[in-house]
Design a protein that fits this description.
By secondary structure, the chain is mainly alpha-helical. It has 2 domains: about 170 residues, no CATH class; about 80 residues, no CATH class. It is about 80% helix and about 0% strand. It has 9 helices and no strands.
Length: about 270
């Protein structure tokens, strides 16, 4: 190939890499259907896998409650109160496990759909957004399971330990409680991601977040009081601590976003 043609081809390749593929509206619909079908297949496969292993996870789910019962010298068995109660638990747990297992695949399908229409720097930001969202959600679940739940259940079981009333824990009601706590903390840990999105659109800035921290602290306190299933101050403080830390992580994320936007604006101004 002549050398005179080579620079033109290279610049075209760079432009295609930056702008991504160009598709018509009909092509977008076809691609969307393809990704939805692939995501649903992944969810179905994840649910099947979750159902196959859900019985093995029941022991892991009930362990925090059993530890709280043993600590108060009570029978550590949990009970189901209807003939189909245990089967219902196995199915529900399998479905939730399947969704969690399939979530990386679903996010990957979302990424495949949006990536062709993004610039190269936007693709890097979007991939980081997906990975960080999944990571923070799992961190929230881990925090709830290993730190918040033991403290909360110890308070709930120990509250009536010296009284005449003894607990008879239903496994289905306990599963509903633990699901709310785990998913709730998982969503709360997405706070830096939410601040990242708001910072991109210029809705919040680091200065705004720091200036209004006292109002954010009030909202965090009220939210912790509402979401925390127990009225004791210790559990509420444990619930509030990660929210405050995540808020300041969000401030740092907002600072990084604003700084990068300013640097890009200055670079574009110099280019003009």
């Amino acid at each position: 190939m002549p050398e005179s043609i080579q620079p033109e081809r290279t610049s075209r390749q760079v432009a295609e890499e930056e702008a991504g593929g160009r598709m018509s509206f009909f092509d977008h619909l076809v691609e969307l259907r393809k990704r939805i079908v692939a995501a649903l297949i992944g969810v179905g496969a994840g649910i099947i896998a979750g159902l196959l292993v859900s019985k093995r996870f029941i022991g892991l789910i009930v362990e925090p409650m059993q530890n709280a019962l043993r600590a108060n010298h009570l029978d550590d068995k949990l009970y189901y109160t209807s003939p189909a109660g245990y089967i219902s638990l196995v199915i529900n747990l399998g479905v939730y496990l399947g969704i969690v297992l399939a979530m990386p695949w679903v996010l990957y399908q979302v990424w495949l759909f949006v990536a062709p229409g993004l610039y190269k720097h936007e693709r890097r930001a979007a991939s980081g957004f997906i990975v960080s969202s999944m990571f923070l959600f799992l961190c929230g679940i881990a925090f709830a399971y290993f730190i918040l739940l033991p403290q909360m259940l110890q308070f709930l079981i120990g509250f009536a330990y010296d009284g005449p009333v003894k607990p008879l824990i239903s496994i289905n009601e306990y599963f509903s409680l633990i699901l709310i706590v785990l998913v709730g903390l998982g969503l709360i840990f997405e706070l830096p991601v939410l601040i990242f999105i708001l910072s991109i659109f210029g809705i919040v800035t680091p200065k705004f977040l720091l200036k209004n921290f006292r109002y954010a602290m009030l909202i965090i306190t009220v939210a912790a009081a509402i979401i925390t299933p127990t009225p004791d101050a210790t559990t509420m403080l444990i619930f509030m601590a990660p929210m405050i830390v995540l808020y300041f992580v969000g401030v740092f994320v907002s600072y990084a976003v604003v700084r990068k936007k300013r640097a890009r604006a200055l670079a574009q101004g110099d280019a003009l």
